Amino acid sequence: MSLSNTVELNTGWQFREIDLGKSDSWLPVPSIPSVVHMDLIHNKRIPDPSLDTNELDCQWVEEKSWRYMLEFATPSRKIGDKAVIVFEGLDTVATVKLNGNEILKSDNMFVSHRIDITTQHLDTSHNTLEIDFASAARYARGVEKDHPEHWFIAHQGESTRMGLRKAQYHWGWDWGPRLVTAGIWRPVRLETFSSRVEDVSVQYSVDEKSKDCQGIIDVHVEANAQVDVWLGLQGPDGSSVLEKQITVEKSAQVPFTLRKASLWYPFGYGEQSLYTLTCNIVHGTTIIDNVRRKVGFRKAELVQEKDSYGKSFYVRVNGIDIFAGGSCWIPADPFIPRISAQRYREVLTAMVESNQVMTRIWGGGIYEEDIFYEVCDELGILVWQDFMFACGSYPAFPDFLDSVEREARQNVRRLRHHPSVVLYAGGNENYYIQETYKLTYDYAGDKDPQSWLKSSFPSRYIFEHLLPKVLAEESPGSIYHPDSPWGDGNPILDDTVGDIHQWEVWHGVMKPYQIYGEIGGRFNSEFGMEAAPHISTINQSISDPREKHPSSWTMDFHNKAGQQQRRLASYISENFKVTNLDLNSWVYLTQLLQSEAMHYAYRSWRRQWGKPSQRQCGGALVWQLNDTWPATSWAIVDYYLVKKPSFYAMKRDLSPLSVAVMRKHNNDWTKLFPSRPDTIEYDLWVSSSKATHIENATIELRFISIRTGQEFLPTQHKTARIEANSCTTILDNTKLDCPLDRDAFVIFAKLIIDGNVVSRDYDWPQPYRYLSFEDRGLGVKLNESRNQISISATRPVKGLIFGERPGLTLSDNSIDVMPGEQYIVDVDGLQEGEALTWKYLGQAEAPTCKL
Ligand code: BMA
C-alpha cells in the first residue's frame, strides 16, 4: 500500500526494562520491526543465542517487562483528515500510550491494529509513543490459573503457552530454542488521510476447460463521503484487461469476466501467471490513495473420493492432479524480524531446485510474512496453511474465541489473493492430543458446536466451527481441513482417509525407514529422520574445539529432540558398520541415514500416486524443510541454508521423471533383513508428473557385484510407454535366484529417453553393515575451471557426499557411483585454493578426502 501521508515509525525508538524503574537508562533500538532479544544483542546485554549454549544466558529476558518509546513529530494535517496509528503486529501483551493516554491494549501477536487518533491532541513537533510489553511467559501462566475449568495439555513447550495467542515455538520445541520474545515485531506507521482503500479483493471461479474466469472485485473504502475509484486489471504481459471508474460509498462489487484467462499453475505444470489489480481513489487526475496487488486465477480442489483404498486425499489444480511432494515449513529464526526477504527467497528457491511443489506452514509458528506468499506465487509453490495451533488442547473461553476469530479473519483477508495458498488446516496435531488423552470427541454423533464448548475438548469449536465459518465468509470456496493430521474423525493414524503424520519411523517404536511404503497413508503430511548439519555449520555454532564431538553437551544442546542420541545411534547401528564415531563420521553417517530414509519414503510414496482414480497417496511433506537455528534436526536445509544430502535424494525422487528399483524385504519389520536370501523379488517402475505420456522410453537394468564390480547377468533393456502423471510399473515381483556363491549386488536402473539419461536408481541389499567396501577405485576429478567434478569408480560406491558450506553450491550430492558410469556434478563458488572434501560409505582412506 502506498499512502501519500504515511510516516513509517521505524527509527528513533529506545527501550528499557520496566521493572528496574527509572534507574535503568534507555537503550537505542536500531530499527523497528524488532524483538527485545535483537535489541539486547545489539546493546551487548545478551549474547547471540545461536552460538554454543548462549540460549541459557538469554532466559532471564522472558521474565521481564519492557518499555519501548518513540518521540516523533506529526506531519501537518488538513482539517477533516483522519489520523491513524497502524500496528501491524505487537508481540504480545502490549499496552500502548500516546502522549500519556492509553490508546490500545493487545494480547494477540497475530492481529494488526488501526487506532484512530484523530481526536487526540497531537503536537506537530513532539509526541511520545510508549509501548509496554508485559512478560508473555508470566502472563500466560496467569491465563492458565484463571481458567481452572480447562485442562491445558501441551506436548512441547509448556502448557501455559496455549492461553496466549503468540507463536508457540517461542516456548521451545524439539528442534528449536526457548526464546519467549517481546516487541514491535511488525511495522508501525502513522497515516493521515481523507479517504483510503481499506481493502480490495477478488472472488472468482475458473472453468478449467475453457479457462474462462468469472468473478467480482470487492472494494472497501474508508471515507466521509462518496469517492471516485478507478479499478484496473492488467494481464501477466502488462496489457490492460479491465479498467473501470466507479463511485463508491463504503464498498462496491464489480463483476468481471476473463475469456481464456492465463491461469496460475504450480511449477512444473504450467506458467505462474500473475495479474496486477490496481485500486485508486481519485480526485480528478489526482490519485488520493492506491492499492496494488498481484493476483492469480486458478481452480484448486481437494479430491476426497471413495476408492479401493478408502477415501482419496490429493490436490487438483486447474483440473490437473498434483502429487504434493514437498516439506513442512517452520519459522526460519527465533526472531522473525531478523529474516530478510532474500533469505525467504533463497529457502523457497531451494524447494523448487529439489522439485518440491508444496510447503506446509506448520501451526506452531506464524502466519508468514507477505514476502513468503509472494515468492510462492512467483515460483509456483503450493501452500498448505495451518492456523496457528499446535500440539495442545486449547481453551475456548469467550475472550479467547473473540481473539481467535479476529486473528483468523485478518489473516485470511491478508492471504486470500495468493493463488499459491490452496489449503487451510485448523492446526497441527491437536486431535492427536484429543486422542491420546481421550478427550470428548464424538465426530458423527455430536454436531452441536455449543455442546463442544462444554466438553473436555472445547477447541473442537475452533477447528470444526469457528475457523471454517470465518474462512467461508472471507474466502468462499477455500479448502479447509480441521487439523493435520485428521481424517473424518477416525483415529489419527488411519491410513484410509485424510492425512497422517507417519512418525513410527524415528519416534514411536522406531520402525525401519525401509518400510515407509507399507506404513503411509492417503497423504503423508509429516515424517522425518534427523541428520547433523555439515561441519561448516557446526563450526559456526560451536566455538570450543573440545565440544566438537558427537557426544558433547553442546552438540546435544543443539539437538532438542527427545531421546535423540539413542534414536540416532540405533538407526546408525542398525544400518551401518560403525568403525569410527569422530565428528566427521558422525556427520557423514547421520546425513547418509537421512538421505536413505528420504529416498525410501519418496520413491515408495510417489509410486503410490498410481494413476487417475487410483491415487493411493496424494503427497508427502517431509518434516521439515528448514531450521530455526543451527541444529541437528529433521531439516533438509540447515539454518545457514546449507543443503543436507537428503535434499538431493528428494531432488532425484521428485524429478518429473524418476526411475525406481527396489527389492522386497520381509514383511515383518522386526526381522526385516534376512541374512542370506536364496531368491529376491524386485520391482521396477517410473514415476512421471509429465502432462503427456512418453513412448519408447528405455530402462537399462544392471546387476553389479559389490565386491568385484562385475556384472553377473547381461545388461537388460526394457522399452516402455511412460504414462502421463502416473506411476508406470515396468516389473512387478520379478524373482532372481541368489545362489550362495553369488556376491551381494546392486540393481542399477537407468531411464533413457531420446538417448539421454534422465534418471538413475540403485537398490542395495540391506542393511549396509553386512557389506564390505574395500578398494572402490573411486576417481574424483575437478576440472581446471573448478566448476565441474567428474566421478567414476571401478566397484559400486555408496553415498559419496561432498562437504558443503554457505556459498558453495552443487548440482548433486549423496551419489551412488557404478562402474562404467560417468557422473558430472556442477560446482559453483569453490574458491581458489579451497579444498573440496568428500567421503563415501566404508571409506578405508582418511575419514575425509580432499582435492
Ligand atoms: C511433529 C510436528 C512437530 C514436531 C515434529 C518432530 O509432531 O508437528 O510438533 O517438531 O513432529 O517431533
UniProtKB/TrEMBL annotation:
Matching InterPro entries, A to Z?
A: Beta-gal/glucu_dom_sf (IPR036156), Beta-mannosidase-like_N2 (IPR054593), Beta-mannosidase_GH2 (IPR050887), Galactose-bd-like_sf (IPR008979), GH (IPR017853), Ig-like_fold (IPR013783), Ig-like_GH2 (IPR006102), Mannosidase_ig (IPR041447)
Question: Care to name a GO molecular-function term for this sequence?
Answer: beta-mannosidase activity
Annotated pathway, please? Glycan metabolism; N-glycan degradation
All copies of the Glycoside hydrolase family 2 immunoglobulin-like beta-sandwich domain together span 196-298
Q: Which domain of life is it from?
A: Eukaryota
Q: Which GO biological process entries does UniProt record here?
A: glycoprotein catabolic process; polysaccharide catabolic process
- What are the EC numbers? 3.2.1.25
- What keywords are assigned to this protein? Carbohydrate metabolism, Glycosidase, Hydrolase, Polysaccharide degradation
Name listed for the protein in its UniProt record: Beta-mannosidase B
